[in-house]
Amino acid sequence: MSDKQVISKQRVADHGEVYTHAREVNAMLDLVKQETERIESRFLEPACGTGNFLVEILNRKLAVVSARYTKSQLEWERYAVLAVSSIYGIDILADNVAACQARLFEIFDVQYRALFKQQAQQKCCDAVRYILCQNILHGDALTLQTVGSGAIPAQPIVFAEWSAVNGSQLKRRDFVFAHLVEQSSHREMPLFSDLDEEAYIPEPVKDYPLIHFLEVGNG
After folding, report:
1. How many angstroms separate the CA atoms of 99 and 60, rounded?
2. Contact, 139 vs 103, CB < 8 A?
3. What is the dihedral of CA 183, 55, 127, 92, to 10 degrees?
4. CA–CA distances in Å: residue 216 to residues 40, 82, 97, 131, 163
5. How many CB atoms lie within 10 A of CB 78?
């Protein structure tokens, strides 16, 4: 993790961009240590920068995956993909979004190839890249919209919920972020959490058929 906290004074002035030091990142995550080590526990960083928090969360999750599943490549792949799919981020700067996606992929890729070497599958890497592109978004967490560019106007931020079904299958449902925020305002609940039947539960804006987790990269 980089110890650099400021890229430029201009970015601080324009966007209030100051990165959290590694020491503080780990101290804060240790407050919810059990959740950071639960493979399927979802985390959202609404101003993720280049991913200092998310990188450490993924490191912790993959450490659990490796401790439990290295005897089976398929099992490791399945749970590593699930770990990646549980991590979400938003940033208002496009270069931060790209850097965050790249850092998270590298964390996965280095550990994957170190464990399985020539047996590492490209389609597993493609699945991770695709999920990161859906989960780490160029947007504004204050307006709850994407950042418009040129002729492309800002749109409501939409996040994909990924759920493991029947072992190797993944279920994807897309939700409007503003609706999730509305849900969480009623109670202190994590992203996509199931609420009791009396609470407001948002409807997905798109529901996808089941797909094998290794085929997710095919779109």
Report:
1. 20
2. no
3. 60
4. 17, 12, 21, 8, 12
5. 22
As given in the structure block, the two tokens for residue 83 are 């770990």
Sequential pLDDT tens for the chain (219 residues): 445 544 545 434 444 444 566 788 888 888 999 999 999 999 999 999 999 999 999 999 999 999 999 999 999 999 999 999 999 999 999 999 999 999 999 999 999 999 999 999 999 999 999 999 999 999 999 999 999 887 889 999 999 999 999 889 999 999 999 998 876 654 455 555 554 445 556 899 999 999 999 999 986
